[in-house]
Amino acid sequence: MSSIAARSWQGPSAPERLALLREAKSIAIVGASDKPSRASYFVATYLQSSTRYRLYFVNPVVTEILGQPTYASLADLPESPDIVDVFRKDDDLPGVLAEAIAAKAKTLWLQLGSWHEGVAADAEAAGLTVVMDRCVKIEHARFHGGLHLAGFDTGVISSRRQVLA
Predict the structure, then answer these.
(1) What are the start-end ranges of the H helices in the chain?
(2) Residues 72-128: tens digit of each pLDDT
(3) Whether the predicted pLDDT of 159 surpasses 50
(4) Which CATH number fits domain 14-144: 3.40.710.10, 3.40.50.10580, 3.30.530.20, 3.40.50.720?
(5) Where do the CoA-binding domain residues begin and end (predicted)?
């Protein structure tokens, strides 16, 4: 269901997403990659360096990402994650949801471009909060003043666009 016209589900509002991020203490990144060119690596790097979250990288193929051990599945985590941030293709989402429910996660967060109304309905029926087609890094940065056109905070407050050398 990637067509915008087919979208009927309504997710949490901006204040509700801010509350989710403020209340969360742990984030599991399902589909985390050790490849710097992947979006999940960029998000993990940002979260590791700019937030207080306990991060868990879920990837059954590699043993370490950004100096932290990886976990083969959500069932292997040492705690129930507050947010399960998903970087997987749509066909994998029902299985990820089943793992998130079993792991007693609170929120299922599907990254930019990921939209699955069936999974959202099933997740909400199981008591999870659902966020779809949004990036945890972008949302965190926008709520905490770290969003810039280049994807990072320049530390400069100006109404003029900065020219980066």
Answers:
(1) 14-23, 39-50, 93-102, 117-125, 136-143
(2) 999 999 999 999 999 999 999 999 999 999 999 999 999 999 999 999 999 999 999
(3) no
(4) 3.40.50.720
(5) 20-114
Nearest 5°: CA angle at 78, between 130 and 45? Answer: 65
In 3D space, the residue among 4, 8, 11 whose CA is nearest the CA of residue 110 turns out to be 11
Residue 128: how many other CB atoms lie within 10 Å: 20
Instruction: Answer whether 58's CB lies under 8 Å from 70's CB.
Output: yes
- Which 3 state secondary structure label does DSSP give 163? coil
Structure tokens at 63: 């043993």
Mean pLDDT check: name the lowest of 32-41, 87-96, 123-132, 145-154: 145-154
Biggest CA–CA distance in the chain, Å, is 50
**pTM attached to this predicted model:** 0.85
